[in-house]
Amino acid sequence: MGNxxxxxxxxxxxxxxxxxxxxxxxxxxxxxxxxxxxDSQAKMQKILYDRFGDVGLGNxxxxxxxxxxxxxxxxxxxxxxxxxxxxxxxxxxxxLNLSKEACDKLTLPDLITAxxxxxxxEQITHLKSKxxxxxxxxxxxxxxxxxxxxxxxxxxxxxxxDPEFCHRLLNLCTQSMIALWQLxxxxxxxxxxxxxxxxxxxxxxxxxxxxxxxxxxTYLEFGLPYDNILGETLQPFGIHHCGxxxxxxxHYAKVKNLVFMEAGFGTDFARARRLLGPxxxxxxxxxxxxxxxxxxEDIAAAVKDAIDQGAPRENYSIDxxxxxxxxxxxxxxxxxxxxxxxxxxx
Amino acid sequence: MSDLEAIKQAVIKGKRKDIAGLVQVAIxxxxxxxxxxxxxxxxxxxxxxxRFEAKKIFVPEMMIAARTxxxxxxxxxxxxxxxxxxxxxxxxxxxxxxxDLHDIGKNxxxxxxxxxxxxxINIGENVTSEDFVEKARELKADVVGMSSLLTTGDPHLKxxxxxxxxxxxxxxxxxxxGGAAVTKKFAVDECGADGYATDAVDAVRVMKQLLExxx
Lengths: 346, 215
Description:
The structure holds 2 protein chains of 2 kinds. By secondary structure, chain A is α/β, with parallel strands linked by helices.
């Protein structure tokens, strides 16, 4: 990639790309067998180097990466959600659809003894004894994400009809997330790696995947208070936001100790950066649908547009995560080359 | 504001606790039950859909509006004479394609379709092409809606449409695709779907067009 400094552009392939192209499974074994995972990670780095080394991806001789991860499913699993594992997909927690009464009976989980955290702690011990270190972390998921997994879509009705119940559940979710982070962070020193590779891993980054579904006013009432608790307790703080940030950007600007923001495609990146301020590291995502179906000209245009919108270029990054089987290799190359040529930081 | 207009506003604003009383007052005053549904509640949901499309409201607001309408319909149902049931404008089988467990987008389409007068059978997520065809046949669907949030669903969307084309339902059931991962070019031009919808509101519009139902 040369020595000239340019905006970084990350590339992330979805499990089906790995499984269908190379047979690397992301099924249950990937999460429950640490040695299989470390071996797979090394294979993936070598594959990336062989296939995309010309644009700086992968590693010719990868060192073992003693990684822990459980997707976004740890707290839902501890709370009793069924977790669906597939060779070619990320683990998915099925909503419990609990009644309000059942939700109100929930208490903070005992993380040390609860499965699958218990198994994850055993993996950490194993990896540390074998490699002397462990990397990665456990994604706590987001406050609203977790509430929806417990209560189901009915939670959105509760926002109208029983806001006090919502606050009780959101508070429990927040406290559970804090407890998980406080258990894992001292062991790994990382709090963002399992959410997004574009964030400084040493900070805590929360996955606000479902916030795109609510209005700015609703976030103000049911989201911001809890993100502020997280930001105050687990600072410095980062947020991953799926999809467009536009409805909530001005409220995210009020989150305490926020140092990183990741915005999905469809966001007005220029407006979001203006509202948040240049001191907040900002990652802009390119649509995986465009990456799969667009031409190289489309991809180059999208990357250039993201670069132009993101000014100032310092503290700014772009990524193309979620690339699925069938994404043309040339689309990956053109994305990387476009930032090299067009995204130079003067 | 007339009582009937108050019903419309209650649906738009999601006043579920108020709707039953408002509907009862209107009925006691001699309002036609079918007119309450068709002239006011469905019209209210059209307004809700337009606001959702314009990003003036979001998922919770649409859900509570649909739920409010349902509560109003529950009051009216027993008053409609046998043989004069609430008229359904078509039957839709709706599911998320195999390999995809996302449900919120598909569920919103279901809510809006129901609120627009369709009979909707939600067959869930991770639905195989065989199940789509079987359910469509069993339930005598007019339309099958396929949702896909991830581009991993592309091959499953394609194989489901192919399964319909090879079945006895070819040409008898309209196939409509939508979801964040789906493009019109892929669904209609490459796979041969009958329609493509950009969102839940568009899904209602497209399905009505395909069934030649006035908007």
